[in-house]
Amino acid sequence: MADSSTAPDSRTALHISGVGLEVVDGSAKRRILDDVSLDVNRGEIVAVTGPSGSGKSTLLAVAGCLQTPYTGVVKLHSADGDVDLTARGAAAARVRREHVGLVFQQPNLLPALTVREQLIVMTRLGRILPPPASERRRARERAAELLESVGLAGMGDRRVSTLSGGQQARVNLARALMNEPELLLVDEPTAALDRASAEAVTDLIVDVTRRYGAATLYVTHDPGQAERADRVMEMVDGRLTDVGGAAGGGAATSPEKREHAAAR
User: Fold this and answer.
1) What's the CA gap between 72 and 61, in Å, rounded?
2) In what order do the strands lie in the sheet with 215-219?
3) Counting beta carbons within 10 angstroms of the beta carbon of residue 73, is it exposed (0 to 12), middle (13 to 18) or buried (19 or more)?
4) Paired strand residues for 94
5) What is the pLDDT of residue 6?
């Protein structure tokens, strides 16, 4: 496991080239993504900023195999070979389950489950039969590891209804990492949080990206969060522009600051 300060890998993980997407709006077609191209390396965070309705969340949906573009190439250069991220139906669900971690603004946690169970259930998606004992044991170990990574060690038996908004955001992030994704897609996960909690969650996104080596595409309206990325892109009217390297360079916040915000 790499240290959280490890620099991004030079190998491309996410490859997007010439992507276009249109929707029918009344009697006319409206272009949502217009000739979008982007590469994200392993262990790299690329922030996407821009006004509401500019196409940022649609870009994540395309990268996450949730929406299919009408033109272009969307691939994940996986350790197992290239993965087509324009797959549909059952093939798309399998790609998301095996390769992609999704973190949305609303955690949508399952109220009947404990914190630990929120994570473990991710390993059972798409299964008909229960997993063997060895896999169940590994899932429990993985859940414990991730809860510790996001500052929730010892809270696995808690119900999500007893958690603060910041703690639920941490569970949301840990759940997305449960199946060891090579691609992490993050859509405004801190929008409803106070400043200290938002900064703590952003710290964690930087930390886990470095530690687990995922390629991370991070949509945010917050300039301070965008500065934590390795690169910043701006989306305007469906077109993506490279703003350049972020001032923050993904530098980690101090352990003292993370500890102060952990209970939020």
Assistant:
1) 14
2) 100-103, 183-187, 215-219, 45-49, 231-236, 239-245
3) middle
4) none
5) 58
Residue type, 42: R
- Taking only the tens place, the pLDDT of each residue in 75-128 is 999 988 999 999 999 999 999 999 999 999 888 899 989 999 999 999 887 666
DSSP 237: T
Tell the residue number behind the tokens 């139906």, with chain if given. 89
72, burial (CB in 10 Å: exposed 0-12, middle 13-18, buried 19+): middle
Percentage of residues in the chain having pLDDT higher than 70: 88
161 secondary structure, DSSP code? G
CA distances from residue 46 to 130, 217, 245, 249 in whole angstroms, order as listed: 37, 5, 9, 11
Q: Where are the domains of the chain?
A: 12-261
The enclosing H or E element of 23 equals strand 12-25
CATH hierarchy code of domain 12-261: 3.40.50.300
- CA end-to-end span of the chain: 27
The dihedral over CA atoms of 262, 114, 182, 37, expressed in degrees to the nearest 10, equals: -80
Q: What's the mean per-residue pLDDT of the chain? A: 88
Checking if the pLDDT of 208 tops 50, the result is yes
Query: Helix, strand, coil shares of the chain as percentages rounded to 5?
Result: 35, 30, 40
CB-based contact 223:198 (threshold 8 Å): no
Q: Report d(CA 129, CA 108) in Å as an integer.
A: 25
- Alpha carbons 68 and 100: distance in angstroms, whole number: 15
